[in-house]
Amino acid sequence: MVRTLSGAEFNAEVAEIRSVIVNEVNELGETAVFTAAEKGHVEVVKVLLPYTTKEGIAAKNRSGFDALHIAASKGHQAIVQILLDHDPVLSKTVAQSNATPLVSAASRGHINVVNELLSKDSSLLEISRSNGKNALHLAARQGHVDIVKTLLDKDPQLARRTDKKGQTALHMAVKGISCEVVKLLLQADAATVMLPDKFGNTALHVATRKKRSEVYHSFIVPPLYRYKPTYLLHCSD
């Protein structure tokens, strides 16, 4: 004889089945909430989140991204906010090469996501990739002016942080094409123009090697030794 489930038992069984389905991973290691976060489906994330376990939310795909990290890298600020409100610890998860959600968002130019992450935990600025590059290094290299300004406003000392090659964000900036980023970095700490990397190269060496004439003009407008940002008049985008 088949026993009839009580209302409470039925609800418990449905909840268990729902949890199994929602937290199932595909061959790429992705859960349903991960896919919704990646695609920017805010309402779907809201529906799935109550049924997603802590392990399901933190689950990483083959590339080492969890739901928060993929949302940050795609620039989905609303989803980042929802996930951080649900579990603030997610902000410090790392993907391959020790990349944090902040590093990924900064390198891709997602200023709203950067602001959201820093509003929850400014200590994220201290976490670098395995090669020593932090969010400022990567934003400077890509020429993301607004993000560079935001990061420097949070911590001007970031301008002096070096990666494992001994390079500062200024070294990275002169490899790019944004003179505005170069200006911001020199305004934060003009003396970085004289800091050599582990191979003895200053930012001017790097700019010259890369033939960034629009950038290295900013270093040679006299008098260089005073390190004053007002001498960057020849640096224009």
UniProtKB/TrEMBL annotation:
PROSITE patterns: ANK_REP_REGION (PS50297), ANK_REPEAT (PS50088). Keywords: ANK repeat, Repeat. InterPro entries: Ankyrin_rpt, Ankyrin_rpt-contain_sf. It comes from the Eukaryota. One of its GO terms (cellular component) is plasma membrane. ANK repeats lie at residues 63-86, 131-163, 165-190. This is Ankyrin repeat-containing protein.
